[in-house]
Amino acid sequence: MPLLEGKKAFIFGVANHRSIAWAIAQALAAEGAQLVLAYQERMEKYVRDLAAKIPGTELVLCDVQQDDQLDAAFTRAGEIFGGSIDILVHCVAFAPPSELENPFLDTTRAGFHTALDISAYSLIAMAKRAEPLMKANGGSIFALTYMASERVMPKYNVMAVAKAALECSVRYLAFELGEHNIRVNAISAGPLNTLAARGISGFTGFRDQVSQVAPLRRNIEQSEVGDTALFLSSSLSRGITGEVIFVDAGYNIMGA
Predict the structure, then answer these.
(1) Residues tagged active-site
(2) Which domains does the chain carry?
């Protein structure tokens, strides 16, 4: 029997075929999960084309900065899934490009607010709306983070602060939702060639460094994050919550 037979997964953050969220969607669907993908209006064509590759996948519009759209998206997902959700995947992050190009010291109030709102607060907003749909049977919520939350990665700037806030939110949500058997975790993926990563200066050079320094002497692939997401979605991870799981070929353990 497929690992996720009968499970229902609501996934935020698919943008194109390189998205980590898309790798996660494929991994979950391959093990029997029914999917609903949330999309931003400007990304509809790309997400719709991808969704067509997984039969039965539904789409809902959602801008995570708009409470009314979040309300409507979770209401619609609940309807599609028959009143419950088992898995919620948060792969949402954004900061204005200027905040990643300028020195961190020049971070603007507006840029800070945007990065924290979209990249961190959105997890809290999603979890709040998912809780009524999960509490009867429990579930798994997980988000994508990055080790810049703990170490300085030049040019990651305010996004690093947002990822630190995201990880702290994971722990507090894990504490509050645990009584309903809802687990909340994060995956800290190594550098991948995604749309978001290409906006960071020096990204290519850093990927080269990882392949030389990481214990496995290589970079990771999107599918490896997808496999970890599958584990967190399944009963195999039923005793794990509030954790950050690194999928980076071991780079995070190194001193340089």
Answers:
(1) 146, 156
(2) 8-249 (3.40.50.720)
Q: What CA–CA distance (Å, rounded) separates 35 from 11?
A: 7
- Digit-coded pLDDT (tens) for 166-194: 999 999 999 999 999 999 999 999 988 77
Determine the average pLDDT of the residues in 64-88: 98
Is the pLDDT at 203 greater than 90? The verdict is: no
Cα separation, 29 vs 2, whole angstroms: 10
Q: Are 144 and 167 in contact (CB under 8 A)?
A: no
DSSP state, residue 226? H
Distance CA 212, CA 218 (A): 7
Annotated binding site: 13, 19-20, 40, 63-64, 92, 95, 163
Q: Which residues are annotated as a binding site for substrate?
A: 95
